[in-house]
Amino acid sequence: xxxxxxxxxxxxxxxxxxxxxxxxxxxxxxxxxxxxxxxxxxxxxxxxxxxxxxxxxxxxxxxxxxxxxxxxxxxxxxxxxxxxxxxxxxxxxxxxxxxxxxxxxxxxxxxxxxxxxxxxxxxxxxxxxxxxxxxxxxxxxxxxxxxxxxxxxxxxxxxxxxxxxxxxxxxxxxxxxxxxxxxxxxxxxxxxxxxxxxxxxxxxxxxxxxxxxxxxxxxxxxxxxxxxxxxxxxxxxxxxxxxxxxxxxxxxxxxxxxxxxxxxxxxxxxxxxxxxxxxxxxxxxxxxxxxxxxxxxxxxxxxxxxxxxxxxxxxxxxxxxxxxxxxxxxxxxxxxxxxxxxxxxxxxxxxxxxxxxxxxxxxxxxxxxxxxxxxxxxxxxxxxxxxxxxxxxxxxxxxxxxxxxxxxxxxxxxxxxxxxxxxxxxxxxxxxxxxxxxxxxxxxxx
Length: 446
Hints:
Elements: H1 42-48, E1 53-58, H2 64-74, E2 78-83, H3 89-101, E3 108-112, H4 116-120, H5 142-148, E4 149-150, E5 153-154, E6 165-169, H6 170-175, H7 184-197, E7 204-205, H8 210-219, E8 225-228, E9 231-234, H9 239-253, E10 257-258, H10 265-273, E11 278-281, H11 285-292, E12 300-303, E13 320-324, H12 331-343, H13 345-352, H14 360-363, H15 366-369, H16 381-390, H17 402-413, H18 423-440, E14 444-445
Parallel strand pairs: 1-2, 1-3, 7-10, 9-14
Antiparallel strand pairs: 3-13, 4-5, 6-11, 6-12, 8-9
């Protein structure tokens, strides 16, 4: 099961853990000096692999230990210690604490795409251009490559991708004579049909999900966050965000969304029975369904994400890779392993575990695209996700404190899902808190 993004349902706050704009220079206490930031050659990287070295990697990825073993077999003088210090928010808290202290950080750590700016803009990560890895650009899908480039620096090599799509229960759709919706208006009508036919059936479930909200705003053309160094602009009232909010509000007003909490036993049960009829999610949801809703095999299918105007405009929901910390004393060997994970045999191992790839050659491979997935009734689901990646809208940016933003979403926007406020009002409350928090952290926010 792919767990790269599942932490985004976390509700615990990360108060006090976000590195501030004011610490941009202070972070140098955990950084290497300028002489160690110079470009290095491939010869130097290879020479480092012949020296006894132990690398520490923090990650909750289930496939990474197998990748590490394969790398050690190829380079026996390198030992890799993969530590699961917590999933998502828990790991980020430990990593932030180590960065603030100037010691204790691993050589490499899993950092999801939405969290990269939080670390990159505070000089906590190594710019991989130092190793010439920017030359690998053509090996990756453009949307994921954009996600790992922040403020002119390259901070990861993409490993997996989370292109958005519509997962739908064909058995439920067939039972009620529903056609697969291609627009959000058709999606609304499908929800109405379900509720009118049987009140136990819902088009989807959502009691507040920040990651999903950001992705749907993205696909609607919203660009609520812009970041230029320590200058941040937040506008959750822009045209694209309003388009999303006005459309989604109808689902909330008519109570077409199940109120059960995502990832709860009731949620899994609803997916298994088809009473929760769809999910809008990144490609990683394939692993969730197969691993936790196995008895519904054959019932589910994948379709393109609904649009507002018939245009195939999509977004990304999830994904991440390994980033190198400035505290690493073994940057050459760490660079070799990082590349192995995302650009060499390690990426094949991760893909075999169910991760959706970011590599361009795989995404254009007929063997990959044409693979039939029995869970989805023999459908070639990879084609749907690959097409989605091709249509990801450009220009999205995450806040340099998006990890914090995600954790407070339900506290500020949650009342929209219980009918106490409109979604637009909830987003406004979220915006006000994000502006306030950003200023407190030393960013220039408007």
